[in-house]
From TrEMBL:
A single BP term in Gene Ontology: peptide transport
Species of the source: Defluviitoga tunisiensis
Xref: CDD domains: ABC_NikE_OppD_transporters
Lineage start: Bacteria, Thermotogati, Thermotogota, Thermotogae, Petrotogales
Keywords for this protein: ATP-binding, Nucleotide-binding, Transport
Protein name listed in UniProt: Peptide ABC transporter ATPase
Amino acid sequence: MAQNTEEIIKVENLTKVFGSGKKAVKAVNNINFSIKKGEIVSLVGQSGSGKTTVTRLILRLLKETEGKIIFEGKDVTDIKGKEKKEYWKKVQAIFQDPYASFNIFSPVKKVLLDTFKLFNSSYSKKEKEKLICETLESVNLRPEEVVDKYPFELSGGQRQRIMIARAHLIRPQLLLADEPTSMIDANLRSGILELLLSLRDTDDCTIMFVTHDLGLAYYVSDRIFIMHEGEIVEEGSADKIITAPEHPYTIQLIKDVPKLSEEWLTS
């Protein structure tokens, strides 16, 4: 894939403080990074490092304390109302717990149809159903086997694939994948990672993959950002981070790579 030099998103001096006074916690501390169109970039760090807070800030689900976010050359820091809804058409997310992300009283078909309703889609009913079928097939699910089922009737891997399908349904330009494999069986994780790679390669979707597992990040990423205690302490190409780490925290993360991921690193 040809290297694209055009930035899709840029984060400048981003800081998020929760609480105030003696109880203040600086979850994100003056971070800066950019992602190019068509890249898969991983944000890697242990629990509590600030990764999910960064994701929620980019999604505009949280208000930053300082700094700004530039998307496609436009400052989106203060967007509201219709502007935010338009932004969400272009920036979608999948989270680590697929079960918690669904209305358990709605079958899959309604969950996906409601996505169109949320974003005021102009598609006809027939067009929506066709797009749903195509999108489910793109994540290796047979529509006839899942559309009438409820979330509790599906496996963890199926629910996560439907989460990806729902995010992909409106063809976002940037997908934020926050620990999408952490709550599914190890033997299903590679399939989810292959799906993310496919979205990038077939639809030119830019992806920010958020994970605690450096091995998984290496498997899918063009570049990796290492996050520790609210700061990005190291960044570089996936190969550079693995073969020539500089920060002590990065070195420790490499030592902690699970055996499953080690197989990918040495293959």
